[in-house]
Write a structure and sequence with these properties.
The strands form four sheets. Strands 3-2-4-5-6 form a five-stranded parallel β-sheet, with helices on both faces. Strands 7-8-9-11-10 form a five-stranded mixed β-sheet. The chain contains 19 helices and 19 strands. The radius of gyration is 25 Å and the shape is globular. The protein folds into four domains: about 40 residues; about 260 residues, inorganic pyrophosphatase (n-terminal core); about 110 residues, Diaminopimelate Epimerase, Chain A, domain 1, CATH 3.10.310.30; about 120 residues, Beta Barrel (OB fold (Dihydrolipoamide Acetyltransferase, E2P)). By secondary structure, it is of the alpha/beta class. Helices cover about 40% and strands about 20% of the residues.
């Protein structure tokens, strides 16, 4: 693993900002890394404002979308809110249906496709359902940008479509009433990196300007922040503002469904890390293991007892999911070893027994062992369904597009995509994908790196330092939790391997010429125990966090890597 230290900021700029804000040199440098180079920008960074959100009508087709929804409300039409089965999709559906039901007489229905029967995106089955139930308008969230044929099919049945999607469009845009997607070439919306639920929020923001009885939109931000974190979109610009206030909503007045999940956490403050590692997997477990409708039901209910029952069910489904994740990843790694293709530029594996709901997570875990673009396939009859995950700097969506002669359909982002191939073309696809990646991947993308923002002395990590560092949150892509490095460290002699499977390393850090001791944990670093035993001197890369135990909160260093 390579440690890559960020380029140092100009000393003069660092010093000026340091004096303006009365912060340490390290804090000043971290701010400059994020484009914060004066007092006013710092104020906006530390105190985001909803007033800085862009006008939703800047988005292409937004006027069309609002007009059509208004028409549906006035004419008392039946409306179907359709969304993907993951966190982004189910939160989007819950957000929009909840909002619209304030203005309709129970005319809004929701629809989450069955992952296994219908697959990803808009399905013929959903359109037929709408036709049978006299639904004249479908609003699709977090999907639809590639559904050209499906939208044409809906038109034949006199069903209008509004598409709210954030995935990469192709050259052909579906002929819907409105297609809300900032990534459209003809869309002038200033912020391009919204998630599906973020676009859903922009839609209700626009609708709220024309409604007689305006809603307080803050109440929907807990859903938006959850989707932002779960979908791993960049936490900059509007995303950072929405996530900041969404976390605030989550910690003060979360909706009943989220409250039921949060109760089990027993934490004073929910962070975006809690959203990503605790809450999102439980919401996702519904669509992965059973039905995404269960997640929507949880997010819409106002009955706490009902919410608790659903939350417990989701918890059990998540436990099952984790067991499947582990098994699938282990079997996939074993398959690679048997194929003796460890030196390949890609990992493409398939097993008809694998569960489609976990192949994406399995692909991410395989990358921990073989750091290269990875696709894991499961089967549905004569079709293989794949989930693709990439490595830093490599666009896997573009790579799959170059293999489209062997692909039935695909969609996604730079770092994650879904696809379908015919079973009898699996080998040809696999070979072509290897060729494409081999010819285009850079040396930098082939090596796992740790991006270190700043070198630091342990005595600089004070309570004041951590208080300011916490205000950098919410953390995520584009605003990562800073990774620091420190040299000449040693354990005080109490290092030990911990965890149910003895995979983690717990120790106490001190630095030469510094008597202060810092609690440290290295998740997955049990193999580094020889590097720290017997008070050996070593260097470490780490983040600064806090640990809550027995009612006490202390600064804790989360160690990522160790080198002697």
């Amino acid at each position: 693993m390579i440690w890559e230290l960020a380029k140092e900021q100009e000393e003069e700029k660092t010093k000026i900002l340091q004096e303006q804000l009365n912060v340490s040199k390290v804090i000043s440098s971290l701010l400059l890394n994020r484009g914060v180079d004066d007092f006013d920008k710092a104020k906006k960074f530390f105190r985001p404002s909803l007033d800085d959100l862009h006008d939703p009508f800047l988005m292409q087709d937004m006027h069309n979308a609002v007009d059509r929804i208004q028409q549906a409300i006035i004419k008392n039409e039946n409306v179907l809110v359709f969304g993907d089965y993951d966190v982004d999709g189910t939160t989007s559906v819950a957000l929009l249906s909840k909002y619209l039901n304030n203005y309709t007489n129970n005319k809004v229905s929701t629809y989450i496709p069955d992952r296994y029967e219908e697959g990803y995106g808009i399905s013929t089955k959903a359109i037929d359902f709408a036709s049978t139930n006299n639904i004249s308008l479908i609003i699709a969230l977090d999907c639809g940008i590639q559904a050209v044929d499906k939208i044409d099919y809906a038109s034949e049945k006199n069903i209008d479509f509004i598409i709210c999607d954030h995935h990469t469009p192709s050259s052909k845009i579906p002929k819907a009433i409105a297609v809300l997607n900032p990534l459209r070439e003809d869309c002038k919306y200033p912020f391009k990196q919204l998630c599906g639920c973020g676009i859903g929020f922009k839609l209700i923001q626009a609708l709220n300007t024309v409604m007689d009885n305006k809603e307080e939109l803050d109440q929907y931000l807990d859903l938006v922040s959850l989707a932002i974190v779960a979908d791993i979109v960049p936490l900059v610009g509007e995303n950072r503002i929405l996530c900041f206030y969404g976390l605030k909503q989550t910690n003060t007045t979360p909706r009943t469904g989220l409250k039921a999940i949060i109760e089990a956490l027993e934490k004073k403050e929910i962070t975006n890390s809690d959203l990503g590692f605790y809450i999102a997997p439980r919401i996702n477990a519904a669509g992965r293991m059973e039905s995404g409708n269960l997640a929507v039901e949880l997010l819409e209910t106002e009955d706490l007892e009902k919410a608790r029952n659903i939350a417990e069910k989701l918890n059990q489904l998540n436990i099952e999911r984790r067991m499947l994740d582990k098994t699938t990843a282990e079997e996939a790694v074993s398959q690679v070893k048997k194929q003796k293709n460890e030196k390949a530029k890609t990992t493409v594996v398939y097993n008809p027994e694998w569960h489609k709901g976990v192949i994406g997570i399995a692909a991410s875990k395989i990358i921990d062992t073989y750091y290269r673009p990875t696709i894991v396939f499961a089967s549905t009859g004569d079709v293989l369904v794949g989930s693709a995950r990439s490595v830093t700097g490599f666009n896997i969506h573009d790579a799959i597009e170059k293999c489209r002669d062997f692909v039935i359909e695909f969609g996604g982002h730079k770092y994650a995509a879904g696809l379908k191939v015919k079973k009898d073309q699996y080998k040809e696809f696999k070979q072509k994908f290897e060729e494409v990646v081999s010819s285009s991947i850079s040396k930098e993308s082939e090596t796992k790196t740790i991006s270190i923002e700043s070198h630091i002395e342990l005595n600089e990590i004070t309570p004041k330092f951590y208080r300011i560092l916490k205000q950098f949150a919410p953390f995520g892509p584009g605003n990562s939790m800073p990774v620091f490095s420190a040299n000449n460290l040693r354990d005080t002699g109490y290092a030990k391997v911990v965890g149910k499977e003895n995979t983690h390393l717990k120790f106490n850090l001190t630095q030469q010429n510094n008597s202060k001791i810092y609690n440290a944990i290295g998740f997955g670093l049990a193999g580094k125990y020889p590097n720290v035993m017997d008070k050996k001197i070593f260097n470490a890369a780490f983040t600064v966090d806090e640990n809550q135990w027995n009612g006490k909160t202390n600064i804790q260093l989360k160690v990522i890597d160790i080198k002697n």
